[in-house]
Write a structure and sequence with these properties.
The chain has a single domain, classed as TIM Barrel (Alpha-Beta Barrel). 35% of the residues lie in helices and 20% in strands. It has twelve helices and 14 strands. Strand 10, helix 8 and strand 11 form a beta-alpha-beta unit. The longest helix is centred in the N-terminal third of the chain and has 14 residues. The protein is globular and about 55 Å long.
């Protein structure tokens, strides 16, 4: 690492041309790769390699971790119906415990977005399990989509579904989530769907609910988020505070071009089967690890090192000691 690079913070103004050129000369910070391993809506009916059970999640995350992921974003599933998101902390503890056993120092990031039809309290059930980070939506979430029929021999078969839903996050509800995260020493991953989310981000800062560096994610191409274009990525980044680390996610076919853009610009990337079930046109991905391996390869081609979990922890201001978890059954043992 050059002397100049070692003196520079990991975050900078990604839209400043001169700072970009200076970073290219000095060397960009290591790339944090977050694997979004499964999601809370579609499952094996969309891609047979989407992990659903706790054991499948742990196995899939381990492969992605070994391929180069420093962080995992998880949606625990209800073991009594794997098509539904987990609604209780005990299930979350089991999943996080198994992920930690198989991936000893990966940064564990749990959802609070969860899945359709959940109450706010059910969406918060992941927080009591003690993830190191948790997603925090900064806007109402309106979506309309079709889910494929889930056929036997898949467990919990169901007919095709049409979802038309809005999760009506308010300023007060978002502050409530952030307050609980702060009380539990969980760093929020701030989900920005469009430039207007910057109003909510600033509200959280004004209420002293966030710690620097702010970990923001631009969510591109999700319904009612900004269209997944270079122009829109830049516009959102112009609205965020200076002391921010940027993670880029994009849906479907837009994942590869926009995460490559983020890698080039000095940001960080989220890849995985939650956002994109395909590896290339007409060919489904055969694992989360395959998508992570491509992000690693692109980073190396663009002359960026890939962050280890330890380096990512330092950049994000997290504890150097990974959180340890006990499964619910162990917690209940005398």
């Amino acid at each position: 690492m050059s002397d100049l690079k070692s003196q520079l913070p990991a975050w900078f103004d990604y839209t400043d041309s001169y700072e970009f050129m200076e970073r290219v000369r000095a060397g960009m910070p290591p790339l944090i790769i977050c694997v979004a391993c499964n999601g809370g809506i579609q499952g094996k009916e969309a891609n047979e390699f989407i992990p659903e059970s706790a054991d499948e999640i742990a196995e899939s995350v381990q492969s992605a971790y070994e391929a180069g992921a420093a962080m995992v974003h998880i949606h625990a599933r209800n073991p009594r119906n794997l098509t539904d998101g987990a609604r209780d902390t005990e299930t979350w503890r089991e999943v996080l415990s198994k992920v930690r056993q198989s991936s000893p120092d990966i940064i564990i990031n749990a959802t609070t977005g969860a899945g359709p039809g959940m109450s706010m309290e059910e969406r918060k059930s992941s927080l009591a399990a003690g993830p190191e980070l948790a997603s925090l939506n900064l806007a109402p979430d309106m979506s309309q989509f079709k889910l494929k029929e889930r056929r036997p021999p898949l467990p919990f078969p169901r007919p095709a579904l049409e979802i038309d839903e809005c999760i009506p996050f308010t300023y007060g509800q978002i502050r409530d989530f952030a307050t609980e995260m702060k009380g539990r020493a969980i760093k929020p991953e701030l989900e920005l769907y469009h430039p207007g989310c910057a109003w909510v981000l600033r509200d959280l800062i004004e209420h002293n609910l966030l710690e620097k560096p702010y970990w923001i994610q631009t969510v591109m191409g999700y319904q009612t988020s900004s269209f997944p274009t270079v122009e829109n990525v830049l516009q959102i980044l112009k609205e965020v505070p200076k002391d921010s680390l940027w993670l880029c996610s994009a849906i479907g076919q837009f994942q590869l071009p926009l995460t490559t853009l983020a890698t080039l610009m000095g940001g960080h990337v989220r890849v995985g089967l939650e956002d994109n079930v395909y590896y290339s046109r007409g060919r489904k991905a055969n694992s989360n690890a395959e998508l992570v391996a491509r992000a690693v390869r692109i980073a190396h081609e663009l002359n960026r090192p890939v962050a280890t979990p330890a380096e990512a922890r330092q950049m994000l201001g997290l504890s150097s000691r990974p959180t340890q978890y006990q499964a619910a059954a162990e917690c209940a043992a005398p």
